[in-house]
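Incident log, structure service

09:12 report received: a user says their structure output differs between two submissions of the same chain.
09:20 pulled the input from the user's history:
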Amino acid sequence: PSMGKTTFAMNLAEHAAMTQDKPVLIYSLEMPSEQIMMRMLASLGRINQTKVRTGQLDDDDWARLSSTMGLLMEKGKMYIDDASGLTPTDVRSRARRIARDHGGIS
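09:34 re-ran on a clean worker, output below:
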């Protein structure tokens, strides 16, 4: 049921990546990476998710969205894996590879 589990997890990931400057790996089994990024942009930019999803943004929203995208590109070390059908071994292997290639993950 809708109890805010994804929102809570995304808030933790945003905090680790943006405030603590930690690299973050997100596995998503139910939501495509594009949808996760739209939610994150809306959250960090303080923009209504529906406006981001539909593209019905006013000038202030566009400015915040652009600024947030720049901040994520500059500071955010986020890695999103939305591959389906991963086994626990696949998850571990992919996490180790990203940690090795990018100096650790949170």
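09:41 both user submissions now match this output. Likely a transient worker issue. Closing.
09:42 reviewer note: The longest helix spans residues 59-75. The chain has one domain: 5-102.
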